Amino acid sequence: MNDSKRLIVAVDGSENSWRAVEYVARILAGLPDVWVCVLSVERLPSRDRFATEEAWETACRIHRERVQEFMERCRRHLEQAGLAAETMIVPACHGPETEATACSLGTSIARDIIAFQEQGQFGTVVVGRRGVSRAEEFLFGSVTTKVTHLARNCAVWVVQ
Question: Does the domain at residues 3-159 carry the CATH identifier 3.90.800.10?
């Protein structure tokens, strides 16, 4: 059975994902025994966009630094609201400096989020809704839509 007091807030560093963190902090502030994991599935820049390996590695390093700063900001915000919080970054398998035993192949961020939810028996997944039109969502899909379709035995909060 999934624990309803264990939440995942899936973030990507966007303003919409920050709103999801703020919402969780506001709604659950000070509740006892609530544990929040801020989860980011790493999506590195495409190697094909860079002329050299060094340029790509530099871009990956800058990207990781930004994600880590965002994650720390999220953790601090949740802790200031009186919630137990930690951060988890699922690294990309095909990136420089990846030495993790579990990593994302980059094929489906939504599947990575749900796999993490199932492994950790989290009772709630919180995601921010990206600002795309219905036509764009139909053509290209979205992580939020896929998470809501894949989730089983847990609640999904979609924050706009």
Answer: no
